[in-house]
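Q: Structure tokens for this one, please.
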Amino acid sequence: MQGRWWTIFTGIYLHGGVLHILFNVLWIRQLGPAVEELFGPARLVVIFTVSGAVGFLLSNWVGHPFTIGASGAVFGLLGAIVAFGKKRGGTFGAMVLRQYGYMALLMFLLSFFIRAVNNAAHAGGFVGGLLAGLLMSLAEHRRETSLDWVLAVACITVTLAGFALSLWSTFVG
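A: Here is the predicted structure, written as tokens:
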């Protein structure tokens, strides 16, 4: 809202303390390899970045003045796995959908009992990951294309540019 658009991307990598980092890294360590296996590494980068950004946008839209952390992106990884289960179908898809859908619901409900948790970012991240997962091809259906890699590089570039702009605005502008 203050014109610093880049914080939508850089906030994913900022945390409020060691425990905050630890919990997010543990979830990324758990869910990241699964999303990479189901969608591919370039699509993982896109899903993670888009989910985090959508989480921050929803958080900002509902009026949270200050948000940091990767939990919106983590919920986006869950959303992408749920999308995989829906797209895959069959017994395996239904099992994945049920298992990860319950996990997302449980994590979301439990987060209401933890002080200073931004559930709007969680919900936005989940929706962002779900939509990205529904729009992107599964690794078992199609290998990653040049477009997938261009999108991943664009996500990384925008994030790095965001950190550069943040430093610039803090120390120069």
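A few notes: The first helix runs from residue 7 to 10. The chain has one domain: 17-164.
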